[in-house]
From TrEMBL, chain A:
Name this polypeptide is given: B9 domain containing 1
Top-rank taxon: Eukaryota
Amino acid sequence: MAAAGPSVFLLMVNGQVESAQFPEYDDLYCKYCFVYGQDWAPTAGLEEGISQITSKSQDARRALVWNFPIDVTFKSTNPYGWPQIVLSVYGPDVFGNDVVRGYGAVHVPLSPGRHKKTIPMFVPESTSKLQKFTSWLMGRRPEYTDPKVVAQGEGREGGNTEAAIPKAAWICLPAWLTLSFCPQ
Amino acid sequence: MKSKEEKVKIITEEYIDDGEDAEEERQKKPSKVPRQKRKKQLPAASREEMVSENSPVDDQQEPVQEGSDTRLLGMMSRRGPRSLPPIPSASRTGFAEFSMRERMREKLQAARSKAESALLQEIPTPRPRRLRSPAEKESETECGMELDREVQRIQQEHDSQGHSRVKFHDSVRKIKSKPLVPPGFPSAEEAYNFFTFNFDPEPEESEEKPKAKNRHGANQEEKEGEEEEPPVQEGVSKTDEEEWLDGRDAEDLLLGLDHAVEDFVAIRPADYESVHVRLQREKELLFVPSRRTVPTYKKLPENVQPRYLEDEGLYIGARPEVPRTNQNIMENRLLTQEPGRRWFGDDGRILALPNPIKPVPSRPPMFTQAQDIKPELETLYKKAVKYIHRSQHLIGSGDSPGNFQLDIDISGLIFTHHPCFSREHVLAAKLAQLYDQYLARRQRNKAKFLTDKLHALRNAVQMGLNPAKTPKTLETTSKTINEYKSEIRQTRKLRDAEQEKDRTLLKTIIKVWKEMKSLREFQRFTNTPLKLVLRKEKVDQKADEEAYEAEIQAEINELLEEHTEEYEQKMEVYRVTLQRWKAWKKAQRAKKKKKKQEVEEHPTDEEREEPGPGEEPEKPAPPEPVDRAVIEQQVRERAAQSRRRPGEPTLVPELSLAGSVTPNDQCPRVEVLRREDIKRRSLFLKVTFNNKEVSRTESRPLGADFRVHFGQIFNLQIFNWPESLTLQVYETVGHSGTTLLAEVFLPIPETTVVSGRAPIEEVEFSSNQHVTLDHEGVGSGVPFSFEADGGNQLILMTSGKVSNSVAWAIGENGIPLIPPLSQQNIGFRSALKRADAISSIGTSGLTDMKKLAKWAAESKLDPNDPSNGPLMQLISVATSGESYIPDFFRLEQLQQEFNFVSDEELNRSKRFRLLLLRSQEVPEFRHYKQIPLYDREIMEKVFQDYEKRLRDRNVIETKDHIDSHRATVAKYLQQVRESVINRFLIAKHHFLLSDLVVEEEVPNISILGLSLFKLAEQKRPLRPRRKGRKKVTAQNLSDGDIKLLVNIIRAYDIPVRKPTASKFHQTSRSSRTFTEKHAASPTTHSPAHSADYPLGQALVRPFVEVSFQRTICHTTTAEGPNPSWNEELELPFRAPNGDYSTTSLQSVKDDVFINIFDEVLYDVLEDDRERGSGIHTRIERHWLGCVRIPFSTIYFQARIDGTFKIDIPPVLLGYSKERSVMMDRGFDSIRSLSEGSYITLFITLEPQLVPGESVREKFDSQEDEKLLQATEKFRAECALKFPNRQCLTTVVDVSGKTVFVTRYLKPLNPPQELLNAYPNNPQATAELVARYVSLIPFLPDTVSFAGVCDLWSSSDQFLDLLAGDEEEHAVLLCNYFLSMGKKAWLVTGNAIPEGPTAYVLTQEQSHYLIWNPCNGHFYGQFDTFCPLKSVSCLIGPDNIWFNIQQYDSPLRINFDVTKPKLWKSFFSRSLPYPGLSSVQPEELIYQRTDQVAAAELQDRIEKILKEKIMDWRPRHLTRWNRYCTSMLRHFLPLLERNQEDVEDDHRAELLKQLGDYRFSGFPLHMPYSEVKPLIEAVYSTGVHNIDAPNVEFALAVYVHPYPKNVLSVWIYVASLIRNR
């Protein structure tokens, strides 16, 4: 790099959130953000974005296609804390309340080139049946305080973590991500 | 590949397209195929035909080209790049396309000619075609063949709707095209070629077919969308098509559709090949190895005999098992190959490695039942062993097991003397001791033994005397008899002595018992249950007498004999001497004669002979004959003395504990006291091993019998050779500390003493302590006496016995865990290794390698045998000279290889270090971002701060804390804080569910009901209610997210200006008294004051400035002494280091300063003439006072709302309180009761933060369990009634133990010099004491111990630390008041701004006063401005009262705690006060503070502050007025001495001295903790902001020392402007 500034390397990520499969839900939108370590800083592009609402395709695949572009560039001095993309999918429930339908995270691929990632999505479960019912009734499902926690390991270890993410409902749905990047 | 075919295909394909166009009728369909055929043969003709056919339809294309070419071109254009628009229809084709088509046609023709030259590759049909977008194809075909489709649709309407049918038709069509080929070609092959070599035409076909199929079902528009799927498949499934087309061939045949004859494929029967022929042919190609055994000679070279190594005695490993047949096959196969023989060994068998499969599993088998596990294989669980590196004591130099164990069994302790012994106890102990002695003696029964011996000897003598029975010679007999006799004599003596001892012991026992009885009678109570019973054993009088007499007779006889013997001996001697004497006499007589003769001749001779008259042997007296009577007399006397009298019953004393102890209530007071004292005492033993404490027993109370039972066994795992083993006896009396009573040294047991066999031994101890007690206890080391007159004094020392046993433990395998002595070492170890000889050889037992090698050679070990492998290797290593055997075992032997860089290098790397420090969350690096990529980019200064801190950790810095005591305390606090914070950093990473997941709580019925009710509520009510804000957890916050909102509403009673020119009014202010305090205090200010103000000029123009973290906001300027601003100020909040975690926020020490200034306009016009044209004024602001609120308070309270007293300096030059105005108004007169100015504020944080939960744990406690239960109950009851009122019963002390709160209250002496200050003015003294307490710096617990709950330190700890929060201040003040004889209580409740806090309540003659311990102010009960807003609890030294009145405001409650309806007391009749001892010290000791140090501190503070002020004025010159400074310096001590009444004197003096200066300034007063708060305070006043050009400054500091290092700091800051 240039002699003037401190050396950094760049990570350019562009791609798109292609589609998702939530067999039970429709009219979803997706939010993405990046989680990265202390040595990382975004230099260009958008770190966060909210997609349009999409409906299910009518064919057998029932895919929710967003094709929502991602374009961001990071600079860093340390591979530690490699960026992770955190996706959270929201949509209306029976009563029209906007509730979270899934969280997922994946590291930005380490090698340049096209990559397609399929992320399993999950949502935190209510701690009791009663709460499940009331949350369904009130339209206030349990949510993470910050979607970024899904990209962090903290709070999952130890005894209280079982409580933290009680029974993660692993709604396995592919959220497709095509990414390409080139480090300098 | 045949060129012809190829051509055919292309054309065919072309034709199909065209053909379809042409297809107008169904009937025509079959004719299409022949046409194609024809075309192939005659290309020209086909063209003609096509023209003719196309002409009616494709007119537009006609002019350009012939039909086939058109189609082709269409295709070609389709094959172009994707981006090209599809050709919609010929009508729309432009010239460019035409030329394109032209070109393409040329190309095609060229290709065709080339095709004839049989090169498939050159045909311009690019493969990628299949990737073509289906949509394009679609549109193309659609547009191109609009008409066709219409036609087809019509056609296909006739078709069956079934899908299959359509398919059939399609296939039919296809078939029709295929069989066109000349019949000479095999149909299969044709199909093969057709599909494999050129896919291009084919897809076109198959593509169009589905299209056609679809078309007839729906509209074309719909199809467009739907048709996506089939084309996608197309590319993939081309080969599939191939197959099913084949199938369709057959189907078509089967169906027997009416095809033209030529269309059919020639059918031939399958060729038959006879089996023999085939086998023959296969034989040529295939080789089948034979299964027969190969003879050995074949496998070996010529003329070589097979050699069997086994037979030669060499080791051959077991060969892997292979079935014989397989082996044969392999051998046969190998032999047929060229160099086959080299696969065979000498023995003619295939070379094979030994069977790798071991017969035994290499993994040790798992034994579920411990059947016959070899002891050395057994895995033992051993605890982790920690080595203590004390080399001189380390046993076994590293490799010894090092696991030795001493079992110390401490069963109990008995005191033989204890200070608490009463006289009776002393006797009882004596008695017990004697009795023990007696028992011991009786057990041994020496007297009996000796008596028996005596009898035996006598018998023996008698036997010996009887010569008939002894055949020995007389001589020997007499000799033995003599021996016997002498023995008898000795034994008898011994026996007599023993018997005498027994008797005296018995006598003493009885005597002591009698003494004890008399003592019991005398004192009229019994202390000990000891009871002595003398059992009389009746004896047969006669027999006894006989035995006695016989004994005496025997003795007399013996003695007689003895004496006769003696007599005889003496007689002998006598005779001899007599004879000698006679001889001598004779000689003498002869001599005399001779002498007489020789006298004359030899006078000198005589001289020589003469000296012997002394030597002259006396005439021996004949020995007295033995008198039997005398002897008998002697014997009887002695017997009477030492022996039981005959007929006298045998006395057997029996000591029992059956006696009853007099109960307490019947004892005199002293005795009861003594018993109480015993109850308070408890004991424990510390076990010290090599002078280190290793364990201690539980503390056990001392029993009334002075016995303590422990019954504990300690297993000491030891490494060091035991040198000493000591038990230390500690005694605890009540709550005071423990005292070491004595040390008991235990012997180290012999190695043979192992646990289980060791007897319990009693080891005595004694202590030399001197104890005097004020009760019945006799004390120890102190003389006391049993007699009334005090004679016969006894001094007893505390002593006792510890019963214990010490032994070596036995390990699980029966080996005693005894540390080996140096000699034992080897044997011990070899015992362990004896079991496995090989392993012992293999490790270290081997010393002589050569010997081993020799032995190996001699014993002819087979070197190939794997079981000898290690041995051989060892030998080879040994003989080759490298005899290095590592004596260690490496766990990760490969680690070295993975170390890409050495550890030192890694540690040297700055980057690595930075990363490491950051991951350790070292405060300096916790939030370090973007650690540079290369070492060279990391500045060395990054580490400087950190390294400095590390260095300074142990260095007490005295720069900031001028006096060293405070520096130590600060350092200590800092360290405690650091450790606490570190602990919390770890805890921070543990999240709770609520930290991660937002979840609605399950609504309970009431909430549900309420929410249902809410549904009916109006959406926008007329009177909106305040809703709680959403709380934010502090983890996702960043800088700028949090704001501090300060709403300044109004102020009251701001000081007003006094014109400087006014002449000075000396107002006599009556000193306040307590009585005045609650009555309306009359003001003595004359109303004349107001007259001084010029009309129209506002009295004061105050504005408020809020400064927080160096951010400053201020309100607009209001007017008058009671301004109303009603403004909201918003200040950003930055957490330290950007760390917004709860712990970090809790420890924010910043304060919010709310300063009130007066804005003063000064005319700076220098020339009066300009007054008409311009106004030149300068705005100056004068500080009037401030309110300081710590951030932590805001954080924990969430909001602060109320009216606060403004902290106005005692002297505010140029300002005075305007009172007269207020007096007029009735309402305000109440308010004016308390002096001072007030400001109404509302402060909150936006968004609201969740304050960290303090750790609520159950702490262990030394309190009585009953008391704790009672507190729980009391709390629960109180919480039920008044959940908002905090009930304080137990608190946590510094060591983390729960303590009952009343233990903190105890009268404690205030410093004497404070009491002496106003000897006859108790009020002033009280105020001074309060002031003293308030001077101790305030430090909230949350800051010092973030997150940890509130800790209470006792008053001496508080004074030592010189920092504490409200509770400590309140406790100290309350204790002082108690010692001053006031009735004082600790009040807990809520105050503003502190929140839950503690105040002190005192009762004066008729009213109550509430003291704020943190600033020393006091308020009457009915003072509206009292910051204490609610009272929940009163705590006195012996009780707690909970407020159960309806109201809790001090104004509305009654403080009379004697009324049980108003105050619920903790201790009541049902639970009386048990007399809890205090945790406070007996008295506080104050040392005078060093005056010199204070003066030094004063100078330094002054210097620092001056420097700071200059720093804050970087753009201006700062002049110091020395004269003024020195004057102020003189004035400050006056302020300290007399805070109230100096203002006016001072003003007068200043006016006198500095008449021509305009002076504004004020003294600040603060308790001293650090320099930083002082700087902050000075900064907040804004004195330095004056930028008038000719301003001068004056700054004086005065530090007044109070006892115990409490310092009061006065800072006088002033600015002076010369008046012109």
